[in-house]
Design a protein that fits this description.
This protein has one domain: Ubiquitin-like (UB roll) (Roll). About 20% of the residues lie in helices and about 20% in strands. It has 3 helices and 5 strands; from the N terminus they run E-H-E-H-E-E-H-E. Strands 2-1-5-3-4 form a 5-stranded mixed β-sheet. Strand 3 and strand 4 form a beta hairpin. The radius of gyration is 12 Å and the shape is globular. The N and C termini lie far apart (about 40 Å).
Length: about 100
């Protein structure tokens, strides 16, 4: 089980609370977590990743604890604490501007 924390606008779109639990079948990677998220909540398809390239959308970041995973390989194993469900996988809407 992986805990995923969504930004408010995505949790509203999905009709869930801010934190959801996903049953992952296989090694815990960003790709598998996001594939499972989009499968369980199809209304989120295209909001976190580009639907054609499957790459992270601009201004979306992924965190495990204080560790920014946004530029890690989507197939790299997630930290053990996230894989074990102790720490959540955070999907964060980044801010920009000046």
């Amino acid at each position: 089980m992986i805990r995923v924390v969504l930004p408010q606008h995505l949790s509203t779109l999905a009709g869930t609370g801010r934190e959801i639990e996903l049953d992952i079948d296989g090694p815990a990677t960003q790709r598998l977590v996001l594939d499972t998220l989009e499968s369980a909540y199809p209304m989120l398809r295209g909001t976190v990743r580009d639907p054609s390239t499957r790459r992270r959308r601009p201004f979306i970041r992924f965190f495990a604890g204080n560790q920014d995973l946004s530029h890690e390989s989507p197939d790299a194993p997630l930290p053990e604490a996230v894989a074990a469900g102790t720490e959540p996988f955070h999907v964060v809407g980044a801010m920009a501007g000046g």
